[in-house]
Amino acid sequence: MSSDRLAGRTIWITGAASGLGKASALRCAEAGAGLILTDLKAPDELAAHIGAQAQAFAQDVTDEESWDRIADAAGAFHVLVNNAGVGENRALAETSLAQWRRVLDVNLDAVFLGTRLAFRRMKPGGSVINVSSVLGMVGNVGTAHYGASKGGVRLLTKHAAVEAAQTGLGIRVNSIHPGYIETPMVIDAVNRQPAPDQIRAHIAGRHPVGHLGEPDDIAHAVVYLASNESKFVTGTETVVDGGYTAW
Predict the structure, then answer these.
(1) Domains along the chain?
(2) pLDDT of amino acid 3
(3) How far, in Å, CA of 88 to CA of 203, rounded?
(4) Is residue 216 predicted with pLDDT exceeding 70?
(5) What is the pLDDT of residues 62-99, one digit of tens each?
(6) For this structure, is 146 an active site residue?
(7) How far apart are CA 20 and CA 34, in angstroms?
(8) Which of 169, 194, 198, 216 could form a disulfide with 164 if both were Cys (CB 3.0 to 4.6 A apart)?
(9) Which candidate in 146, 180, 224, 244 is catalytic?
(10) C-beta neighbour count of 5 within 10 angstroms
């Protein structure tokens, strides 16, 4: 169903080639937004599917210079969705410093780079949406580095929101905290386990609703936070987790 909820707004989505980023791009396009879509490999196929309102660029979000380069090429944007991320399971005692830093580099440092760019280039009325995780709010086994990165996103969001409001930037900053969603990253991680069916059932059972979420569950939250309907919403945590954090 098309609408004009995001008409006149250009939305930059990182990690747009698949999963939450792709779903968010499709839902934002349906709502009338222009799109700047980035991923390690330019999501040209997705941009072509959406049409003339979408631009695609290759971007390594950990590359500081890439942010200004793409902003110069793509033009003004009104919303930034810091969605790109990596995840892996690894026991804390078996995690090397290099592995720790890689996860934080992609999941947290890149969110800082994107948010900083938004503060420098975005006009009042803009919105920064940072995709965190329920594991940035509660503990888990084997995900200390991932949880630390996503917890960092949660607090970075709050500090940035207060700063943007108090210094007159007029930019809202919010985080989204998905539960386990059926994305390629999650499914691939499950399939690498010795008993994937059992692991999937276990993960689904961690949610009171009894099943995993769908990418569109997050995409709808992105549309809301990108729209003027959320003009009084900043510094918040939008938790979309099937009840994962409720018990």
Answers:
(1) 10-246 (3.40.50.720)
(2) 78
(3) 15
(4) yes
(5) 999 999 999 999 999 999 999 999 998 899 999 999 99
(6) yes
(7) 18
(8) 169
(9) 146
(10) 18
